[in-house]
Write a structure and sequence with these properties.
31% of the residues lie in helices and 25% in strands. By secondary structure, it is of the alpha/beta class. α5 crosses α6, α10 crosses α11 and α13 packs across α15. The longest helix is centred in the first third of the chain and has 17 residues. Bound molecules: 5'-O-[(S)-ethoxy(hydroxy)phosphoryl]adenosine (WTA). 5'-O-[(S)-ethoxy(hydroxy)phosphoryl]adenosine binds next to α11, β22, β27 and β28.
Length: 644
Amino acid sequence: MKKKGIKYVIKKGNEFYPSDEMKKIANITDAKIYEKANKDPVKFWGDLAKKGLTWEKDWNETYTEKLPYFQWFKGGKLNFSVNCVDRHLANPNKTALIWIPEPKDEKPIKISYGELYDKINKFANVLKSYGIKKGDIVSIYLPMIPEALISMLACTRIGAIHSVVFSAFSAEALKARIEDGKAKILITSDGYYRRGKPENLFKKAKQAAKKTTIQKIIVAKRTGTKTRGRNVLDFNEEIEKASSYCKPEIMNSEDTMFLLYTSGTTGKPKGIIHDTGGYAAQAYWTSKWNFDLHPEDTMWCTADIGWVTGHTYGMYGPLLVGATSLIYEGGPNFPNPGRWWKIIQDHKVNVFYTAPTAIRMFMKAPQKWITKYDLSSLKVLGSVGEPIDKESWMWYFRTVGGSRCPIIDTWWQTETGGTLINTIPGIGPFVPTVSGKSFPGTRHSIVDDEGRPTPKGKPGFLVQKSPFAPGMLHGVFNNHKKYVDTYWKKFKTMYDTSDGAYLQNGLIRITGRTDDVMKVAGHRLATAEVENAIHDNKKVDDVAVVPMPDEIRGQVPMAFVVLKKGKPSKKLEQELRKYVDIKIGPTARPKRIFFVSDIPKTRSGKIMRRILKALLINEKPKGLMTLVNPESVDEVKRIINSNS
Ligand code: WTA
């Protein structure tokens, strides 16, 4: 029989608040924490970092700032893998990771903290034996399999910098990231299962590594696909040969721990730099307070490790807290829409964290696939990646959470390292579509073009104020100018998030990006990146890409192409769409490509995306006077209409 589960929230008007049951168990329940933290954020974070992490040496200065750079816990020393694993070894049999393979006839695998410790130490020794040392960059191109976690943690054990690349990205996208970081080792797998089929990952990895700095490719076996080649090593064979203890490299708090490439407004993704101590402090405390994660909990964050959410809450946050993390290899609704919900039931997941795009997809599925499972283990539900609309919020709340669980709408970015704006489960209120307050000890403001706070409730730019959160980026890899231009040029002393927001009863509501970044099924992509990819094709003379609203994916890229040669045809449209797969990956593939003879532009040659966006949703475009080629608008309109 289905169990009802504990009621963690109560309703008051249109808002939800933590119930007494929630308050009894929550890691934090006192709303005064915001005020207390704000009095002296630096001291506040200093106390938290001391309490939450294991340090080898205390720091001399909690926070120093010389904008646009700032440092946390300077002089402090620690090792990240010790914080994630070694310090939990009092109970070595406790499960650290549950891995669910996609094929249903394969059994889930549980890895204890003791086993994880063993594997990390050995794999760290493998990396060392191939010359990897502190500060070297290691490229990781892995699907959702345990080796991903082992590889990442092994890097942190020896102070190597990991740079994880999303496994659905193309060989060319991987190559560009390898080249930027000059990685010597690439860790990948032969493949993975997706929607019942083995996907070949090795082929892409090998192609990407050609003529780069990569000296060795270490391959985890998953699908049994052949992986031959010079300098190709087998992950497990290497681990078996390695000795079982690797002394952790003691790192400075502000030493770089990882790079993660993300899209901005230009065509080239930038390597976001994250440090060790500050990142760890924010990952630990946000997991504990925002998700109310306890060591006895199982957390499932559905994000791929190729994205920051997968890094911080799919792996590191749960381990820092000493909890259990669950990861799943495959398609969310494979072989049927019940897959995710059965996993929650079977593994008694307590904290579930996903994206609005998935919520919208399941909302449209036959509901019996969700309601037939016992989801009473759930305690906290999280949402991330894009604004969540009211209907999806309510569906998530009722159908998944059984009207029992708080929904934490977490706003953050690759750059912020961890969640920063949301409601805390033990404090509330939980209001549909509203993210909430800045995490204690962090400060955000909503400002106008000049950096002045907007009048109450008026929309503006979301900025972060000093002292900047400990998990914040430490620059853009090899590109100081891009770091300054992207985050500090507009508001000088305030970090520019590139998001719009407004206040609703003192709580922050995010309205979305104010730049040319799209969120496609939760994945971050720049319009310019997709434009560059298409532009590389010899047949293309000019191209514009804009996002169009989509019921499930949130946004989808749409392209307008002026041809250099060849005639517009369905076949050519398919050819160019596939071309984007090769350049970036299927995530970036435009939904449609319209062939036009001219693209609406300003006198200075800037694409007028606003006009294209309006035309796509059948709205009357404004500001045609600024165009150098107003006649192009009628043609674009005609072509969209005749193709829809
Ligand atoms: C958007 C993902 C509204 C936002 C962690 C941000 C959100 C971008 C939310 C970062 C939210 C993230 N509500 N919008 N709760 N969370 N965003 O780097 O536009 O992949 O700037 O990091 O996602 O995307 P990224």
